[in-house]
Amino acid sequence: MQTAQTVRTVQIQPVGGSTAIIELAGLRFVTDPTVDAPSEPENGRPRRLTPPARTDLGRLDVALVSHDQHPDNLDAGGRRLLAEIPLVLTTTDGAERLGGSARGLAPYESHEVGDVRITALPALHGPHGAEAVLGPVVGFLLSGDGLPTVYVSGDNASVDVVREIAAFTGPVDVALLFVGGASSPHYFDGALLTLGNAEAVETARILGARAVVPIHCEGWSHYSQDRTGLTRAFADAGLGHVLVTVPDGATVTL
User: How many structural domains comprise the chain?
Assistant: First the structure.
């Protein structure tokens, strides 16, 4: 039987890049698994600069894959890892490509595992029109009776999309935000492909988040903004108490 303390807390461990382990209601979730070593330069494409904090992620019950199209969200090692995970939730297109235990969820569609309801949420991987070029992406909401609500943004760059999400979810307890202001000269004249620092602050405000844990902000070549700047942006906005920065490999309980 779960204690009240167990039910009412969530543990988050960033691993590196877009990958984090979430422990909630006795289940272990992993976001966008990337466990490969740093890569060599290749035609100006994004590359990993620092290794993940760990490559053995232990028992995993559910993988939350925001999209499967890009190696900074699902690399070769991550794909092998998916074969060992009982349930992989991702986009409907991604589930067809991945096969195996993958199940596709359209935005606002839910799936329940144990005491946790996982709801897919919209995401836009760049400016308006990005989906036609970079493919569909989803975020996720973890929720359940007596549980903290956990928003996982995935590679979303749109504050307007966050407003739409907030109208559906209401305030959330914890927001796991993919930040770093990712950009590439190959797409949309270098426009942001994930939340930048200012957009992350606005996202926290819109969602009324009790805590924001940033990931996807260090260790890859296409991140244009870093954790230091993010910390300063939250402090300048009077939201420094909301931001919870956790070193890769460390665990925070919220």
Answer: 1
Q: Residue 91 falls within a domain, yes or no?
A: yes
Contacts of 89 (CB under 8 A, 6+ apart): 62, 63, 64, 65, 102, 103, 104, 105, 111, 118, 120, 140
Residues forming a β-bridge with 63: 30, 88
CA gap 68, 179 in Å, rounded: 18
Q: What is the CATH number of the domain that holds 69?
A: 3.60.15.10
Q: Classify residue 4: in a domain, yes or no.
A: no
The four Cα atoms 56, 62, 63, 65 give a dihedral, to 10 degrees, of -170
Span 6-51, pLDDT tens digits: 447 999 999 999 999 999 999 999 999 999 999 887 777 889 999 9
pLDDT tens readout for residues 117-150? 999 999 998 888 888 888 899 999 999 999 999 9
What is the extent of the structural domain holding 230? Answer: 12-34+53-247
Q: What SS3 class is residue 89? A: strand
